[in-house]
Amino acid sequence: MNPTETPRIIRVTETASTNQYLREYLQTEKLPEGSAVVASFQLAGRGQAGNSWESAPGCNLLFSTLLYPNFIPANRQFIISQITSLSVSDTLSQYTDHITIKWPNDIYWKEKKICGILIENDLTGQYIYSSIQGIGININQTEFQSNAPNPVSLKQITGNTYKLDEMLDQFLQRFYRYYIELLQEKDQEVHNKYMRHLFRGTGYHPFREGDRTFEAHIQAIEPTGHLILKEKNGTTHRYAFKEVHFIL
Questions:
Q1: Spatial distance between the Cα atoms of 129 and 77, rounded to a whole number of angstroms
Q2: Distance between CA 25 and CA 227 in Å, rounded?
Q3: Which residue in 105, 106, 135, 140 could disulfide with 59, CB within 3.0 to 4.6 Å?
Q4: Are strands 227-231 and 212-221 parallel, antiparallel or unpaired?
Q5: Beta-ladder partners of 63
Q6: For residue 245, which of 217, 210, 207, 206 has the smallest C-alpha distance?
Q7: Cα 205 vs. chain centroid, distance in angstroms?
Q8: Contact 89, 156 (CB under 8 A)
Q9: How many CA atoms, within 13 angstroms, populate the side-chain half-sphere of residue 49?
């Protein structure tokens, strides 16, 4: 990050999605690296693969951050997902136990989803030009009306109400530190910590691939983000995102 440029925090009451708002903003003005757009409400918050994200107005953290990681090759872009999910995980772990990262980058408390992340990278040649990290963290919401199978908020877990600005500041401090680690070529240290914080990271667990269900354990996650699962009979399989699903 450029130490001569201070990241900007842009606050909006509502928008279709903070990722979309940030993309449109960048068409007219370049923002310093580390800048963020924060919304009180999203009309069309998106998750991975087009999934929607439910959030009551003013209750949760809905924001997108911006990086220009032009030193990261396109085939290693999953490292951005890792530092983003670790930053959320570290922030929430200050307030409750049992926070884990469900591959590739959902944040879970026990068996329930507390945060969704959508990474959108723009490439120039073989490197990343810009990266937008869209993040929705359930903080103070107490009821969920959608058909999402397993949402939970920090307030539901602890019974406490939290100041959203303080939570955002805590996330950003961690996010910037992790990004500096990438600049210092500490990718392996970041990856090792990501692996230690995985949801169902040890033991055998049920998965679904198409119509087939099976039990396997997570053997590895490649720099490309591919998941390597090993079944009890010793066979291993390599999966891209959405090719295999955890059975919850």
A1: 11
A2: 34
A3: 140
A4: antiparallel
A5: 38, 135
A6: 207
A7: 22
A8: no
A9: 7
pLDDT tens sequence for the chain (248 residues): 776 789 999 999 988 899 999 999 999 999 999 999 999 887 754 444 444 445 677 889 999 999 999 999 999 999 999 999 999 999 999 999 999 999 999 999 999 999 999 999 999 999 999 999 999 999 999 988 776 779 999 999 999 999 999 999 999 999 999 999 999 999 999 999 999 999 999 999 999 999 999 999 999 999 999 999 999 999 999 999 999 999 99
Q: Cα(128)–Cα(70) distance, rounded to whole angstroms?
A: 5
Cα–Cα nearest to 136, from 44, 226, 242: 44
Report the alpha-carbon distance of residue 30 to residue 91 in Å, rounded.
28
- The answer to whether 117 touches 84, Cβ cutoff 8 Å, is yes
Tell me which residue of 91, 130, 55 sits closest to 101, measured CA to CA: 91
Question: Which 8-state DSSP code applies to residue 46?
Answer: B
Alpha helices in the chain (DSSP H): 18-26, 78-92, 154-158, 164-183, 187-196
Q: In terms of Cα–Cα distance, which of 111, 144, 115 is closest to 246? A: 111
**22-58: buried (b, 16+ CB within 10 Å) or exposed (e) per residue?**
bbebeeeeebebbbbbbbbbbeebbbbeeeebbbeee
DSSP type of residue 151 = B
Nearest Cα residue to 212 out of 244, 237, 234, 241 = 244
What SS3 class is residue 3?
coil
The tokens describing 22, both together, are 């940030």
Counted residue by residue, the chain has a size of: 248
pTM of whole model > 0.85?
yes
**Both structure tokens of 71:** 């030193």
